Amino acid sequence: MPLYEHVFLARQDISSQQVEALVDTFKGVIETNGGKVEKVEGWGLKTLAYRIKKNRKAHFTLLNLDAPPAAVKEMERQMGINEDILRFMTIKVEVLDPEPSAMVQKRDRDDRRDRGDRGDRPDRGDRPDRGERRRPEETSREG
């Protein structure tokens, strides 16, 4: 069977549980039509580059599919009808990547970054004294 990567964007005002319910619904469509979902990645709520149907953010989800074209077509048809789905895109690929996608790796890297004491800053040493500062009322224009 052909392999696909499918990404869809769900409205910002639905909950994570509702997004998971959508994923389960679309998984069911694929499986009833003879395919299977290899991997599901929820990328979370992200800001969009521009508004889509008055939404500034969306829940992003990736599905890796091993399914016949008819199953993907039916899933896309149902996504087009669903009001909670803002956009979707399906790409046919040669091989499905079992590793976490770049989006998930980026999020993991961001989560690991320690910002506690800012110890990564270079030592600035002793700074020279800049002298006393003048108040705005002390600096008068001489003319």
What do these coordinates show?
By secondary structure, the protein is an alpha+beta fold. It is built from three helices and four strands, in the order E-H-E-E-H-E-H. The protein has a four-stranded antiparallel β-sheet. The N and C termini lie far apart (86 Å). The mean pLDDT is 85.
* Through-space gap between termini: 86 Å
**In terms of per-residue confidence, which ranges show pLDDT below 50 for 5 or more consecutive residues?**
none
Order of helices and strands: EHEEHEH
Estimate what percentage of residues fall within beta strands. Answer: 25-35%
Query: For the largest beta sheet, what order do the strands appear in spatially?
Result: 2-3-1-4
Structural class: alpha+beta
Helix content: 25-40%
What is the radius of gyration computed over CA atoms, rounded to a whole number of angstroms? 25 Å
User: Number of helix segments?
Assistant: 3
In terms of quaternary structure, the protein is single chain
Mean pLDDT: 85
Topology, element by element:
Elements: E1 3-11, H1 16-32, E2 36-52, E3 55-66, H2 69-81, E4 85-93, H3 102-112
Antiparallel strand pairs: 1-3, 1-4, 2-3
Protein traits:
143 residues; elongated; single chain; 3 helices; 4-stranded antiparallel beta sheet; 4 strands; alpha+beta
Short précis:
With 143 residues, the chain is of the alpha+beta class. Helices cover 29% and strands 33% of the residues.
